[in-house]
């Protein structure tokens, strides 16, 4: 019985661990499907409200842009998860333990500056930024490029989807700012369960809401990481008010995205080797907190 309970607990734990990825994947594909529908059918809620017909070329361009962003989100996410940022496979010996090195009792090894132990990944991570709960992976030296590119395309995709969904809001609010229309936008689930709206109207209201909320959340996260990128800082260094590794904007970009930084964000398959090794970093400022 105890072993059965342990097996059930492990299965529940594993499912919970993967829930954020499953939920996000579902949302990304639902939003893309809904926006494709808006482009192709051009009638969000009522068939008689068609605007000027879009040309097939214009529709193709929209669909191409959507699937370009979707492919970039998925591909960058896969490469982000599959690229281990840990110290495994990194040669930490060389010229020995220098200034800023620490000893990790969990990994039983000396670790370089900017490296820290992740208790979720159970390993030390080079140039560790933070542990991303949505993907169950640490953001570190080797996979930071994929993380930022994924965030960039999520942000642009949600901006695009929010603009495309503006018509859904207009159609819902066309009946006037009534209790019904406001409740449909604020609590679409309750309106569906209580039988106040059709499943069709619910789906559009829910996705339009998700686009707006998702866009606001991803914007905050994206601009925070852009701010850190420009300062050559990790989230952990920002917490401790230290930025001794700032190399200037262009060099920070090169050390994050690699030698082909100006192009590689367009496609995760464009090779762009990183200039450093994730172990040694040029110190340009004080290692002490600045405030
Ligand atoms: Zn460790
Ligand atoms: Zn981690």
Automatic annotation (TrEMBL):
Keywords from the named record: Acyltransferase, Membrane, Transferase, Transmembrane, Transmembrane helix
Membrane topology, record value: Multi-pass membrane protein
Family: Belongs to the DHHC palmitoyltransferase family.
TM region(s), chain numbering: 20-40, 61-81, 144-164, 176-195, 201-230
Predominant subcellular localization, coarse grouping: membrane
Native organism taxonomy: Eukaryota, Metazoa, Chordata, Craniata, Vertebrata
Enzyme class: transferase
E.C. designation(s): 2.3.1.225
UniProt subcellular location: Membrane
GO molecular function: protein-cysteine S-palmitoyltransferase activity
Residues annotated as domain Palmitoyltransferase DHHC: 101-240
InterPro entries given in the database record: Palmitoyltrfase_DHHC (IPR001594), PFA4/ZDH16/20/ERF2-like (IPR039859)
Cellular component aspect of the GO annotation: membrane
Organism expressing this protein natively: Hippocampus comes (Tiger tail seahorse)
UniProt key word Transmembrane: yes
Catalysed transformations (reactions): L-cysteinyl-[protein] + hexadecanoyl-CoA = S-hexadecanoyl-L-cysteinyl-[protein] + CoA
Description of its domains: The DHHC domain is required for palmitoyltransferase activity.
Domain of life: Eukaryota
Descriptive protein name: Palmitoyltransferase
């Amino acid at each position: 019985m105890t072993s059965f309970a342990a097996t059930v607990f492990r299965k529940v734990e594993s499912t919970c661990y993967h829930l954020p990825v499953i939920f996000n994947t579902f949302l990304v594909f639902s939003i893309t499907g809904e926006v494709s529908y808006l482009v192709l059918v051009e009638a969000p809620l009522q068939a008689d409200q068609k605007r000027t017909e879009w040309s097939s070329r214009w529709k193709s361009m929209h669909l191409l842009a959507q699937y370009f962003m979707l492919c970039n989100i998925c591909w960058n996410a896969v490469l982000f998860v599959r690229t281990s940022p840990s110290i495994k496979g990194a040669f930490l010996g060389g010229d020995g333990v220098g200034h800023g090195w620490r000893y990790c009792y969990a990994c039983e090894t000396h670790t370089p500056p900017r490296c820290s132990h992740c208790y979720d990944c159970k390993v030390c991570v080079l140039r560790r930024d933070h542990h991303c709960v949505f993907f169950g992976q640490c953001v570190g030296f080797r996979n930071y490029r994929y993380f930022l590119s994924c965030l960039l395309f999520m942000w642009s995709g949600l901006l695009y989807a929010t603009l495309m969904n503006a018509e859904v809001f207009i159609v819902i609010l066309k009946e006037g700012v009534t209790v019904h229309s406001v409740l449909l936008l604020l609590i679409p689930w309750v309106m569906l369960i209580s039988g106040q709206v059709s499943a069709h109207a619910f789906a559009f209201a829910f996705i339009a809401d998700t686009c707006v909320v998702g866009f606001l959340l991803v914007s905050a996260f994206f601009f925070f990481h852009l701010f850190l990128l420009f300062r050559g800082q990790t989230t952990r260094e920002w917490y401790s008010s230290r930025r001794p590794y700032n190399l200037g904007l262009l060099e920070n970009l090169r050390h994050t995205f690699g030698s082909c930084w100006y192009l590689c964000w367009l496609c995760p398959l464009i090779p762009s080797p990183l200039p450093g090794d994730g172990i040694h970093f040029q110190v340009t400022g004080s290692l002490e907190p600045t405030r």
